[in-house]
Amino acid sequence: MLKIPSHIAVLTSGGDAPGMNAAIRAVVRSAVYYGKKITGIYNGYEGLINGNFQELNSRSVKYILNQGGTFLKSARSDRFRTPEGRKQAYDNLAKTGIDALIVIGGDGSFTGAKIFSEEYDFQVIGVPGTIDNDLYGTDFTIGYDTATNTAIECIDKIRDTASSHDRLFLVEVMGRDSGFIALRSAIAAGALDVIMPENDTTYDHLVETINRAGKNKKFSNIIVVAEGNKLGNIFEISNFLKGKFPHLDIKVTILGHLQRGGSPTVYDRVLASKLGVAAVEGLLIGRNKVMAGVMHQQIIYTPFEEAITRKAYINPELIRINKILTI
Ligand SMILES: Nc1ncnc2c1ncn2[C@@H]1O[C@H](COP(=O)(O)OP(=O)(O)O)[C@@H](O)[C@H]1O
Ligand SMILES: O=P(O)(O)OC[C@H]1O[C@](O)(COP(=O)(O)O)[C@@H](O)[C@@H]1O
Ligand SMILES: [Mg+2]
After folding, report:
1. Is the pTM of this model over 0.95?
2. Ligand 1 mutation target, pool 43, 76, 257, most atoms within 8 A of CB
């Protein structure tokens, strides 16, 4: 028989992402709208284990829609990886009368959520919040659009100085195991090439690309490097290229955590609002162990198992387009 939850909890986990606040707001307001009790858990799974709970109401989430970060704070919790940690987490939920949980996070958070939900037969829904966009079951994750906008704002600035000095810049963007941020920012910023885990770039290919640029009289260039690429770290790549092209002035810039902050874009605010409502409505119709996502403009619920194990799709057409446009 379908058990409808009466008291929902929400937490943010893993790397923070712009738009997480908008998602929390949407969860809290829709829970209130449907007459449910709603509790915020601070510090992700660490707060779940420590009992760091706070009951929320619709006014608790005012003025956060446009704020980066997450007011509930986030954490990476080693204790939640242990059965003892998860037992403590369950005891705290049970003691507080919470009967459903919404986890806003990425692949790691959903792996933990799946294990916890199975261990304790606890109803859990995920909301994809990560700048990496590395989840199957949603076209965009919350934060990805803002992060790429931040990245291209920075790369545009690098472009100015690269052009003044006829330099080659290697720019590292985030993406622990994926090239989504790299590919999208490369296209938007007109980068000469992009090195990411999905395209197995070789040193030979890089040499060929730089030679081609020289022949086509492109004297200032940007190559976007995803941190998770398989060729090597950005300094190794730079040293190799310096050896091959001693006449080129080659510089390295690492954008790093800049990409994780800032006010969310309209796209991320709207996506977070849709997904926060979808998560609560999903719980109310009995969905469990699934992630709410938007694919082709439609809300869909994908089992955690698929969301974390199936590969999020990098569109090879974008790689082809970038090659054509940087001739
Ligand atoms: N195999 C696992 N078992 C239990 N918890 C996990 C597991 N993998 C990840 N988690 C929990 O999820 C948290 C967030 O995962 P992480 O990979 O850091 O971020 P994200 O969710 O953004 O991908 C981890 O710190 C840990 O507490
Ligand atoms: O902030 P930290 O802990 O240094 O982690 C950096 C990692 O987090 C990310 O920014 C986001 O990844 P997650 O959302 O999976 O946590 C990655 O791109 C990056 O590799
Ligand atoms: Mg992740």
Report:
1. yes
2. 76
CA of 181 to the centre of ligand 1 (A): 21
Same-domain check for residues 106 and 161:
no
Q: Say which of 16, 99, 132, 134 is annotated catalytic.
A: 132
**pLDDT tens-place string over residues 4-42:** 999 999 999 999 999 999 999 999 999 999 999 999 999
Other Cβ atoms less than 10 A from the Cβ of 138: the count is: 23
Specify whether 50 is located in the same domain as 121.
yes
Radius of gyration of the chain (CA): 22
What ligand has the least distance to the C-alpha of 12? Answer: 1
Which DSSP symbol is given to 311?
P
Per the annotation, where are the binding residues for ADP?
Answer: 25-29, 159, 218-220
Residue 191, in any domain of the structure: yes
> Is 156 labeled as catalytic in the residue annotation?
no
Domain count, the chain: 2
Does residue 105 register a pLDDT over 70?
Answer: yes
Domain containing 204 equals 144-261
Is there a single domain that holds both residue 18 and residue 126? yes
Say how many Å lie between the CA of residue 184 and the centre of ligand 1: 26
| Predicted ipTM of the assembly | 0.98
Q: Which residues are registered as beta bridge partners of 290?
A: 125, 303
Half-sphere exposure of 16 (CA within 13 A, CB side): 25
Instruction: Locate 93 and state its tokens.
Output: 């939920």
